[in-house]
Amino acid sequence: MSCRVAKTKPAADGGSGNAPRIGENTEDMIIIQNIGQLAMPRARLAEDGGQSPPYGVDVLHNAWLRIEGERIESFGNGDGPAKPPGDEVIDAGGKCVLPGLIDCHTHTVFAGSREDEFVKRIEGKSYAQIAEEGGGIKTTVRAVREASEDDLVALALPRLERMLAGGVTTVEIKSGYGLSIDDELKMLRTVKKLNPMQPIELVGTFLGAHTVPAEYADRRGAYIDLVCSDEMMGRVAREGLAEFCDVFTERTAFTVDESRRILLRAKEYGLTPKLHADQITQIGASRLAAEVGAISADHLEAIDDGAIAAMKEAGVIAVLLPGCSWFLGVEQAPARKIIDSGLPVALATDYNPGSSMVESLALVMSIACTQMRMTPAECLAGVTATAAAALNRADRIGTIARGMQADLVILDVENYDQLPYNAGRNCVRRVIKKGRVLPVHPKP
Ligand code: NIG
Ligand code: FE
């Protein structure tokens, strides 16, 4: 495969001012030729009442695709249009091309490390026991509170660079390790600052209700008041730091009633609800997701039939996190049952230092195939089209169609089945973000 690397436009001031974003591209034309398989994922979403065919991937063999500026201009079979003057030509070498991957649930901004808990779990302690003994999320909260915004930026940048090298072009990042006004704002401002510094589009989610911090242990109501306050949630919304509000609804975190109050307040501030639901125990979290009209309910390892039906009725997307269960060594969510019921399913890494030290979305696909019996097509739709819907971006990213944003990945394998099949290997040859061909990345 030969391909010329387009000139990037690095932000001259390091990304903090009005300099152009890395990856910004307004006029260039690019044609990708000799595509062995053009993979076009589609989601089965609630709006059409489940009438569309089961989600999966349509393919074109021996294809071409033309990019104009930041968008997909046209594509088809064969050699494609004669090269217009000025078009940059990329030879895909007969390999597979697919939309940029979307990681729709992560905790990528964090400080510190929790390998001691990893070892404790190998020795027999559970994730919940470690949390009840004062470890878990609270350990990362201590580390994040000690870190400056610049420290958090410096820690997150190489993580994002590795994710990009793995073909990921959009990442959602949650707060939730600050748990005070200043520290929650610090985390979300970190996300905002990181956005123009590197090519991945970052989406902020406010997770002030991740756990009750130690200093509020005897006054949990006061902490919930704080999360719902104008000083915390209101500032997050006003400063445009988050689009979503998430709550960890679980026996060790927040009850259904507490979560309801937080999510209804979030809606008043214009934040869209999401939940960490049914991860360890079934306390009604995914039913609450349906009740409040959440865009997604994430985890779902302990979901039951009634909750699946409620989510389907309300059009809530199921975000499954198989890397987390794999990392914790616990049972996976019942993916087949959820898919076969007709719910749209997205997949994400849940990348975080406690329950899922897993950065690779491709590895998550491999785990979903081997441990949850999801097909590679279902997995690919889950990390593209359906993940885009879980981030309210289905009109712009996650599929290959005329006018969609040109976020694309060229693999070094012939078809998308080979992506999860090559478990743990990075099969990404080239990443294109908003129509800009990015420099070759160091392979992880
Ligand atoms: O999605 N479950 C809650 N939150 C994260 C874990 C965070 C942590 O352990 O640091 C999760 O698994
Ligand atoms: Fe999570």
Q: What does this 3D model show about the protein?
A:
The protein has 444 residues and is of the alpha/beta class. The chain folds into two domains: 4-99 and 399-438, Urease, subunit C, domain 1 (Roll), CATH 2.30.40.10; 102-390, TIM Barrel (Alpha-Beta Barrel). Helices cover 33% and strands 21% of the residues. The strands form two sheets. Strands 1, 2, 3, 4, 5, 14, 15 and 16 form an eight-stranded mixed beta sheet that branches. It is globular. The chain starts with 28 loop residues before the first strand and ends in a 7-residue tail after the last strand. Bound molecules: N-(iminomethyl)-L-glutamic acid and fe (iii) ion (FE). Residues 105, 107, 276, 350, 352 line the site of fe (iii) ion. The site of fe (iii) ion has 5 residues, from loops.
Give the class from helix and strand content and strand pairing: alpha/beta
CATH architecture of the largest domain: Alpha-Beta Barrel
Task: Please identify which CATH superfamily of the largest domain we are dealing with.
Answer: Metal-dependent hydrolases
Largest sheet: 8 strands, mixed
Tell me the quaternary state: single chain
List low-confidence stretches.
1-26
Total strand segments: 16
Tell the overall outline: globular
Q: Could you estimate the helical fraction of the residues in percent?
A: 25-40%
Estimate what percentage of residues fall within beta strands. Answer: 15-25%
Rg: 21 Å
**What is the CATH topology of the largest domain?**
TIM Barrel
Q: In total, how many domains does the architecture comprise?
A: 2
